[in-house]
């Protein structure tokens, strides 16, 4: 007897009805999922003092006086670093202290922002190291004026900068805020934030990793003049491209043709000044130059936040660019765009075929540090599809060829010892805090991007200015005059090199390491260049009016 077949509902016997029901069921599940997701996204965040809630996306922006979250589902590592900031600040007692704000995008959205949480961790660690050295060693003068560090958030794509700077200004007097550091990326938003703080809060703003040439000028809708209270410890894009051009000139065989893959994003100061400098400095006699433009999405394009990632947006353009790149057959590609967009470029280059161009050399600006450890890029390098170089703002191995006889090397090794809690590379001694404070213990691998070093230097400059300003308590803006004096006579001992501030708040004669990204996610400095012409390695000696090479 054949087995009895179960009686199926009539609907499953009808293919059309079955498909309709399946679609309706799927749609119901999707709708329910979206409603649940919307409910989760719209759930409030408890924003502490100095912060306010903004939407799109939901986050807390301003200056974080209570050490609360910036966004929901915030990574545990950022929470731990914020707790470390709070703990360090709690050790500063009494009424005589200064507060330095580290202002960034602390609530980036994946697929929309070109900054990631992973990129933020070393930045906070670098700032914490500067505050630790200021409070527990004699690195930046007398410890009689202790330092607090607070984190400030401008939100995704720095879009909530007006709220952030307004809240910093509102809390400046009560919280003894004397300087704002960081800023993050060179965009119209961060440029406007620096200009507003200068014009309205009268606070010095010290950029750590902002390299766009125009960052020290106001946006046109704010007047377009110089931002008086703006300084930075990083080199400019113009200097960075000069270093790249010097590196390319020394390559053997010399590149006969260069393709500049350039982003047309006009609202991004980093990109626009990189494109201008590349077009000016990379041409050479006998060399063919080809420009291959693309256009990254503007910050106001909210379509990206509703399903289309920045990566996919750009893959489409790089796919269409591929034929032109193959036709140009360059010896080298200069990528004049955001580092976070490099993986989309590399992905299309590898997957669509390399046109017989084996191990294509690609060089970019400092933002390419974000691609360290990116799986797509690592695999392409390991397979010898590309070789990737970038002009870094700083690199942990840049001083190895210089040696410990240089004060610049000694400055870095003191920083590294404080950052890691490990022995100084030159003296082989552990850094002994003056008050027996617990040492820091950050991972040395977090130095690979160089951003921890630059952020440390920006906070160090802020602390040095505050401690050398006799009028600080009555006029915080008087620090600007103090920073103006920190030039070739009174330099700041930075982890990334001596800091001597010049016209427009730009540093003088900064070293620019050219860094190679390896297929295993590590980096190595292949050349240390000095766009100013002479290495700045030593502080002024007795009888010298300025440092040699400055």
Query: How many whole angstroms does the radius of gyration measure?
Result: 26 Å
| Element pattern in H and E | HHEEHEHEHEHEEHEHEHEHEHEHHHEEEE
User: Structural class, judged by helices and strands?
Assistant: alpha/beta
CATH class of the largest domain, anyone? Alpha Beta
Give the CATH topology of the largest domain: Rossmann fold
- Oligomerization state of this entry? single chain
Cα shape: globular
Please describe what this structure looks like.
This protein has 2 domains: 61-235 and 441-506, Response regulator (Rossmann fold), CATH 3.40.50.2300; 237-391, Response regulator (Rossmann fold, 3-Layer(aba) Sandwich), CATH 3.40.50. The protein contains 14 helices and 16 strands. The longest helix has 28 residues, at 15-42. By secondary structure, it is of the alpha/beta class. The protein starts with 9 loop residues before the first helix and ends in a 21-residue tail after the last strand. A 7-stranded mixed sheet has the order 1-2-4-3-5-6-7, sandwiched between helices. A 7-stranded mixed sheet has the order 9-8-10-11-12-15-16, with helices on both faces. It has a two-stranded antiparallel ribbon with strand order 13-14. Helices cover 36% and strands 15% of the residues. Residues 1-41 have low confidence and may be disordered. It is globular and about 70 Å long. The protein has helices at residues 10-13, 15-42, 76-90, 117-136, 161-175, 188-201, 237-249, 269-281, 310-328, 342-351, 375-382, 407-420, 451-467, 479-485; strands spanning 51-54, 59-63, 98-104, 147-153, 177-182, 205-207, 230-232, 257-263, 288-294, 332-336, 360-364, 386-391, 492-494, 497-499, 512-517, 523-529.
């Amino acid at each position: 007897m054949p087995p009895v077949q179960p009686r199926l509902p009539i609907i499953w016997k009808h293919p059309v009805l079955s498909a309709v029901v399946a679609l309706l069921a799927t749609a119901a599940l999707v709708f329910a999922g979206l409603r649940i997701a919307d409910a989760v996204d719209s759930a409030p965040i408890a924003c502490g003092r100095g912060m306010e809630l903004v939407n799109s996306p939901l986050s807390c922006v301003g200056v974080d006086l209570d050490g609360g979250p910036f966004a929901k589902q915030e990574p545990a590592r950022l929470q731990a670093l914020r707790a470390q900031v709070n703990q360090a600040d709690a050790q500063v007692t009494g009424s005589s202290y200064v507060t330095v704000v580290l202002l960034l995008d602390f609530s980036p959205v994946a697929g929309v922002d070109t900054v990631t949480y992973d990129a933020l961790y070393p930045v906070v660690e670098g700032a914490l190291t500067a505050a630790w050295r200021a409070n527990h060693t004699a690195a930046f003068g007398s410890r009689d004026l202790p330092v607090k560090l607070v984190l400030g958030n401008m939100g995704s794509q720095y879009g909530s900068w007006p709220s952030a700077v307004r809240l910093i200004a509102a809390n400046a007097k009560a919280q003894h805020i004397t300087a704002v550091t960081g800023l993050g990326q060179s965009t119209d938003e961060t440029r406007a934030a620096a200009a507003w703080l200068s014009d309205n809060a009268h606070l010095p703003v010290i950029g750590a990793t902002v390299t766009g040439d125009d960052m020290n000028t106001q946006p046109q809708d704010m007047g377009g003049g110089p931002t008086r209270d703006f300084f930075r410890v990083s080199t400019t894009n113009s200097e960075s491209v000069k270093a790249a051009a010097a590196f390319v000139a020394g390559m053997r065989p010399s590149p006969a043709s260069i393709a500049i893959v350039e982003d047309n994003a006009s609202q991004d100061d980093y990109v626009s000044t990189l494109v201008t400098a590349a077009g000016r400095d990379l041409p050479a006699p006998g060399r063919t130059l080809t420009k291959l433009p693309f256009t990254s999405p503007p910050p106001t394009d909210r379509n990206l936040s509703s399903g289309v990632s920045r990566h996919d947006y750009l893959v489409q353009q790089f796919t269409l660019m591929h034929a032109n790149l193959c036709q140009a057959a360059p010896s080298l590609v200069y990528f004049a765009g955001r580092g976070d967009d490099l993986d989309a470029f590399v992905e299309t280059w590898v997957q669509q075929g390399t046109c017989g161009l084996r191990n294509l050399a690609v060089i970019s600006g400092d933002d390419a540090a974000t691609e360290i450890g990116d799986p797509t890029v690592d695999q392409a390098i390991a397979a010898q599809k590309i070789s990737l170089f970038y002009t870094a703002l700083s690199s942990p191995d840049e001083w190895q060829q210089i040696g410990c006889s240089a004060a610049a090397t000694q400055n870095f090794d003191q920083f590294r010892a404080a950052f890691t809690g490990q022995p100084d590379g030159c003296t082989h001694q552990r850094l002994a805090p003056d008050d027996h404070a617990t040492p820091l213990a950050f991972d040395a691998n977090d130095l690979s991007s160089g951003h921890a070093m630059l952020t440390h230097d920006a906070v160090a400059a802020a602390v040095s200015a505050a401690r050398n300003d006799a009028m600080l308590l009555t006029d915080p803006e008087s620090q600007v005059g103090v920073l103006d004096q920190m030039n070739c006579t009174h330099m700041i001992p930075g982890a990334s090199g001596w800091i001597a501030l010049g016209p427009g708040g730009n540093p003088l004669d900064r070293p620019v390491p050219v860094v190679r990204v390896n297929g295993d996610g590590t980096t190595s400095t292949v050349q240390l260049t000095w766009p100013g012409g002479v290495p700045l390695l030593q502080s002024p000696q007795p009888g010298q009016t300025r440092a040699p090479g400055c």
